[in-house]
Write a structure and sequence with these properties.
- There is one protein chain.
- The chain is α/β, with parallel strands linked by helices and 432 residues long.
- It contains 17 helices and 14 strands.
- It folds into two domains: 143 residues, 3-Layer(aba) Sandwich (Rossmann fold); 250 residues, pyruvate-formate lyase- activating enzyme (Alpha-Beta Horseshoe).
- The chain has a six-stranded parallel sheet, with helices on both faces. The chain has a six-stranded parallel sheet with strand order 7-10-11-12-13-14. Strands 8-9 form a two-stranded antiparallel sheet.
- Helix 9 runs parallel beside helix 10 and helix 13 runs parallel beside helix 15.
- The longest helix is centred in the C-terminal third of the chain and has 17 residues.
Length: 432
């Protein structure tokens, strides 16, 4: 039996806005060619020995639509959906069975079913053996799942599938899962819809042992829940980073602005080799105060930024723009805050109504969605009618934030947390 796994193409910012190439190299994560998400790598780790399989990343390699295979598996996020659907249609036209899974098909299976024979809903660990058994028997079901595996059932991804082919990925952290599920209904996140609102944590020992086996030094912990303020979560995170302090690693984490900023907690992160925290702003009460120019909340946020960066942890700010409370002055206020708070590394993106999110449900109910051309749901396009500005004002302000912020930055300071990139030959400061 032969199976082809495919990671579909998606649009990067530079493809839509090539003039942003003048921003200093690695001005933001959007300029990286980043390795694919973990879905296909988890599937690869679950393949039995008697199955012949391969992976194609459509972002760097053309898909062989004439390949003789027994099944095509496509796992994807919303920005990849249009490409995934075209692939599904092409293989099915030849009579090749196609199964789709991942975040987008799990959230809108009715949409994906138009382009595949079967949909895998939710987390794959509890479903893949059954899918393979049905494929062998020639009775592939229309739908599998959802089922919720325990943390003990999660499968470690098969590493090294995308980073050894000369494919040009220029940031190669090892993505490591720590938890699944989330109780917070953030407006543009569909994680609670996909994984449920109950938190499930891996054993600290299992996380540390996986990290210990990885070849590279750069580790990216993919879940922001480890930065929640709840005491039980704080205890888990402290235990994890106390263990990581003994390893030779550089750790990148992610959070919302309302992260746990207790001094003792941040001290533990610093000792655990955290080099950068990717902080999403725009939707929580503290962010809204910053966006609206509230002096008291701005000062509180400045203190959080300082507390983190004084410990050697880069505050990597990710500003979402385009919420209903955002007026045309929001862009100037954000840039002023970046200057005042000494934020060096920042990203800017349009708050996008991904399916399964509160934002999508709201805009759909209000008739403000322009379309569901999923290829434009990237965070770089305006796909809805804003409330307090025009679409063009939102787009111009979003792009202007990129150029204005990085006009003032020194590329070596921007690159400081990314040592392997900073040491690469040929990197020079580009003028805008």
């Amino acid at each position: 039996m032969k199976i082809r796994l495919i990671y579909p193409r998606f649009e990067r910012f530079l493809e839509a806005y090539p003039h942003l190439a003048s921003i200093p190299t690695i001005g933001g994560l959007w300029k990286y060619r980043m390795p694919p998400a973990l879905g296909t790598q988890i599937l690869a780790a679950m393949m039995p020995d008697d199955v012949e399989w391969g992976i194609t990343d459509q972002n760097v390699t053309e898909v062989d639509l004439d390949e003789d295979v027994d099944l095509v598996g496509i796992s994807f996020f919303t920005p990849q959906a249009s490409a995934a659907y075209a692939l599904g249609d092409a293989f099915r036209k030849r009579g090749v069975p196609v199964i789709m899974g991942g975040m987008h098909p799990s959230i809108v299976p009715h949409d994906a079913r138009l382009h595949c024979d079967s949909v895998c809903l939710g987390e794959v660990e509890a479903l893949w053996p059954e899918i393979l058994a049905d494929l062998r028997a020639g009775r592939l079901a229309r739908t599998y799942g959802p089922r919720t595996p325990t943390a003990e059932q999660w499968v470690r991804p098969r590493r090294g599938l995308f980073d050894d082919r000369g494919n040009g990925y220029d940031w190669k952290p090892s993505l490591v899962q720590v938890a699944r599920g989330c109780p917070r209904p953030c407006p543009f996140c569909n994680l609670p819809e996909l994984q449920g609102d109950l938190l499930r944590f891996r054993r600290v020992e299992d996380v540390v042992e996986e990290i210990r086996t990885l070849e590279g030094r750069d580790i990216y912990l993919t879940e922001d829940v480890i930065m929640f303020r709840a005491s039980s979560i704080e205890q888990y995170t402290i235990e994890l980073f106390e263990r990581l302090a003994d390893l030779d690693v550089h750790v990148f984490i992610t959070s919302a602005l309302v992260f746990n900023a207790r001094p003792r907690f941040l001290d533990v992160l610093a000792r655990g080799h955290v080099r950068a925290n990717y902080v999403t702003l725009g939707f929580d009460p503290l962010s809204r105060g910053v966006y609206e120019g509230d002096a008291k909340l701005i000062e509180a946020t400045r203190r959080q930024v300082d507390a983190m960066q004084e410990r050697g942890i880069r505050f990597h700010a990710a500003f979402a723009v385009g919420f209903d409370d955002d007026d045309p002055g929001i862009f100037e206020r954000i840039l002023r805050f970046c200057d005042d708070a000494h934020i060096i590394t920042a990203e800017f993106y349009v708050a996008t109504p991904f399916p399964g999110t509160p934002l999508h449900r709201q805009l759909s109910a209000e008739g403000r969605l322009h379309h569901e051309d999923w290829s434009r749901y990237t965070g770089g396009h305006v796909v809805y009618r804003p409330k307090q500005m025009t679409e063009q004002q939102l787009l111009d302000g979003f792009l202007g934030c990129w150029t204005e912020h990085y006009r003032k930055q020194d590329v070596q300071r921007v690159l400081a947390p990314f040592d392997h990139v900073a040491r690469a030959p040929g990197l020079a400061r580009d003028a805008i």
